[in-house]
Amino acid sequence: MFPDDFEHYQTLLGPHRPKDVSDKEGLHHFRVFKKRMRENCDAALVELTSTDLCVYFCDFLLFALPDGFWPKNYFDYELYRFEPQERMRFLGSVHNLRVRKCFNPRDAWHLVEQKAELLERLHAGGVLQREWVIPAECTADEFVCFAQRNPVMFVKSLDRKKGHGAHRVDARVIGAEALYQQCCENNAVCEQAICQHGDMAELCPDSVNTMRVVTLRDVDGGIQVPCAALRIGRVGQCVDHRRTNDFLTAVVSVQDGIVCSPALTNNHDRLSHHPDTSALIAGRAIPAWDAVISCARTAHQLFPELGYIGWDIAVREDGNAEVVDADCYPDMTLVQAPSLKGVRDLFVPLVRQMKRAHKVRS
Question: Which of 7, 99, 318, 351 is most buried (most C-beta within 10 Å)?
Answer without folding.
Answer: 99
